[in-house]
Amino acid sequence: MVFEQFITERLVTEVLEIGERLWPSGAGMRSTKDEEKEVVPAKAVAEAVATFMEPGGAGEAARSAVKELAVKADAAVAEGGSSYSDLRRLIDDLMQAK
Questions:
Q1: pLDDT digits over 23-66, tens only?
Q2: Among 17, 24, 35, 90, whose Cα sits 20 to 30 Å from the Cα of 84?
Q3: Is 20 among the domain residues?
């Protein structure tokens, strides 16, 4: 359940640019092994959230990016959109296979 977290973190922070890295470089060991896990202190979480929510900061840019992504997602699931078409094809393939 933890193996994809580092990939998801990179997607959210570096690719989509809609989040902030909470675990800064040099803050401690990052591991998928339960016996090696470290807990991010509540104070660090609170500080990161406060910084992210500051007007004109990273949070504002992220909210703008999320609005753009939402428009694209709506188009993809609307009739004729890419996700809509892919799901129809999957349903058709499953119906033919039965």
A1: 666 555 666 677 766 777 788 888 888 988 889 888 999 999 99
A2: 17
A3: yes
Do the Cβ atoms of 41 and 34 come closer than 8 Å? no
d(CA 78, CA 80): 6
Question: 30: domain range?
Answer: 1-40
In-domain check, residue 10: yes
Tell me the residue type at 33.
K
Q: Looking up tokens 């959109």, which residue turns up?
A: 81
For residue 24, being part of any structural domain is answered with yes
Per-position DSSP letters for 71-93, written without gaps between them: HHHHHHHSTTSHHHHHHHHHHHH
| pTM, 2 dp | 0.65
At 94 the pLDDT is: 96
